[in-house]
Amino acid sequence: MLARDVGKMLRARRLTVSTAESCTGGRLGDALTNVSGSSDYYRGGIISYGNQAKVDLLDVHESSLLMKGAVSDEVARQMAIGVRKKFRSSLGVGITGIAGPTGGTPKKPVGLVYIAVSSERKTICTKNLFKGSRMQVKRQSVDRALEMIKSLLSER
Hints:
Elements: H1 2-13, E1 17-21, H2 27-33, E2 42-47, H3 51-58, H4 62-67, H5 73-87, E3 91-97, E4 112-118, E5 123-129, H6 134-155
Parallel strand pairs: 1-2, 1-3
Antiparallel strand pairs: 3-4, 4-5
């Protein structure tokens, strides 16, 4: 199980993680906390579904939301950095996207999800275009976020 592997790596390195989720609605936090002992490394999460929550709780810049939109590289990065700082965790994860089946546009289709992982040293972000139902997009987003955390931890 990917969440268990990530947990083992975090625990072994004595690192912590926090999550800022929009389109996944808390599923990443759920996956991380489904592992026994996750309180050793999971600090908490914020479900910032609306734009105002992103601004108020994660310090996302209103100008970023206006210029780039909530579903963007810039906002995902700010979410990851913001949640890492709020929870004083080693890593922060930001996920924002369009799970569907409605809400997509030609420029930002259903299944478009930006996922960012932030440490003190760097922040990485991926643009993903997932296929399937709303639940499948959410599941794929969580799996990709866990893979990104694992990859970042492998570099340390």
